[in-house]
Amino acid sequence: MLRQKQQEENTVQPSNWYLIPGLGADERVFRGLSLPGPEVVLAWLQPQSPTEPLRQYAARLAEAVPPNQPCWLVGVSFGGLLALEVGRLRPLARVVLISSLANARQLPPLLKFGRATRLYRLVPFGLLPRLPRLAQWFFGARNGREYRLLARILRDTDPTFARWATRQLLHWDSTGVPPAVRLHGTHDRLLPAGHSPVDYALPGAGHFMIVSHAAALSRLLCEVATA
Questions:
Q1: What DSSP string runs through 123-157?
Q2: Looking at the domain 2-226, which fold is it?
Q3: How far is Cα 177 from Cα 193, in angstroms, rounded to an integer?
Q4: No. of helices (H) and no. of strands (E), the chain
Q5: Element holding 184 (H helix, E strand)
Q6: Edge-to-edge strand ranges of the sheet holding 93-98
Q7: CB-hemisphere CA count at 13 Å for 16?
Q8: Residues whose CB falls within 8 Å of the CB of residue 48, separated by 6 or more in sequence, listed in order
C-alpha cells in the first residue's frame, strides 16, 4: 500500500509554479507570463561569501519550496542553473529552463575561453549599467519598454552578486542534475543554444525572450503543463 501511495503521489500533476529570474533580475521579468496555477517568484539571496558553492546557495533557496509538493521550477538564464540545483533537492519538482543551460557542457565557446583564461575576473561589473546599448544587443531587447526594463535591471544589479554568479556559472558542476524541458530563442547571443538539444525553439527570439516573447512562452508553458 505504501508503494502504491508513493506511485500515486509521483503522478500528481504539478500546479504551483516557482519562478527563478536571471542574474540581476527580479519579478519584473515575469509580469507578462500567464501560467495555469499559483506563481511564486523566488527572490535572490545574498551569497554568504564570495566563494559560497552553488549547491549550498541552492539549498538555501530551496527552503521556499515545500519538499512534498509536486511543482514546476522555471529558471531563466542563470536562474536555470538554480532551478536544476533546487531540483536535485526536490524530486517531485519538474524543471523548465528558459534561455538557460541544461548542463555545463553547453557553455558557449566564448565563456569557456573566459573560464580557461580567467579573464572573467577582470570584468568591470560596476560599469555594466553604463553600457545599456551593448547589453541590449547581447540580450536582444527591443527599443521602448524592453530596453527601459533592461536598463533598470542593469542599474539595479549588485556587482558583488554578479561577480559571484559569473564564477558559479563558469565553474558549474552539473553532474547528476535532473532532466529538464528547455525553451530557447534561435537568436540568443548571450547563451546561444548551438548544437545542444532544445525542446521548444522560439524563432527570432533572443536572450530577453522572457519579456519580448512572454505571450508565446505562456502558451508553451501551458502546453508543457498538460503534456
A1: --GGGGGG-HHHHHHHHTPPTTHHHHHHHHHHHH-
A2: Rossmann fold (3.40.50)
A3: 18
A4: 9, 6
A5: strand 180-185
A6: 39-41, 16-20, 71-76, 93-98, 180-185, 200-202
A7: 14
A8: 56, 57
**Helix pair angle (159-170, 78-89), 10° resolution:** 70
Whole-number Å distance between alpha carbons of 180 and 141: 26
Burial class (CB in 10 A: 0-12, 13-18, 19+), 108: middle
Cell numbers representing residue 88 in the block: 536535485
The predicted model scores a pTM of 0.89
Q: Do 59 and 82 touch, CB atoms closer than 8 A?
A: no
How far is residue 85's CA from residue 194's CA, in Å, rounded to a whole number?
23
- Give the three cell numbers for residue 221: 508553458
- The pLDDT tens digits of the residues spanning 19-41 come to 999 987 888 999 999 998 899 99
